[in-house]
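Protein Record: Sequence and Backbone Structure Tokens
======================================================
Scope: a single protein chain, as residues and as a discrete description of its fold.
Tokens: labelled as protein backbone structure tokens, with as many entries as the chain has residues.
Position: the record begins directly beneath this header, with no further notes in between.
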Amino acid sequence: MPQYIKASIPMPGKAENMNPNVPSPHNPSTMTLNGRLKIPKAYFAPKGRLYSDEDMVALKRARPLETLPPKFIPTKGSEVKPPVLHFGYPPGDAVLAYAKVHNLLKPIPTLEDDDGNLAAPEPDLAYTIRNVLETLCERHKLTSIKPSVQAILRTDFLSFYTNYTPCPPKEEAEKLAEELKVILNRTDSPMWYPDSHEWMWRRE
């Protein structure tokens, strides 16, 4: 069973050295400043104490990562494991609107009220988002991407892949991002967000 660590491994320090000319398999684009990557403190283990609810709150308020830092890529054989980070977008209400227009809504199973009357069906957000993602991948033959809907700090999220899953070809990730930008009415690129359950550094 994984054990969430008290030790300060790793701790925030100076901005991490990055070579912008060397691509990372998890970085569709590399955002650096003078060759150094700045990572919010909330992404690291607390110093000299166990995690607390305040740490989750701080992480939720921290900005997502534009680039996956090398130390957040799991290393085979290492007993210290980084948090799970998802690459993708928050969904927003636009996904439901798109699903309704394209007949991709997945309803919650019909329930009865106290009088035995059937309640009006409501869309199941998680299944609807996944249906939209799977439809886009099938339509554009994005066979290397296995999209999922994950809870990102208690909010549903469109996840292309994680730092623990194989990285798809760059052109496939870019094509899915291009389609979602239109659906979500966004101009920004996908970023890295912490998982809702495995957001802590841990020791196995």
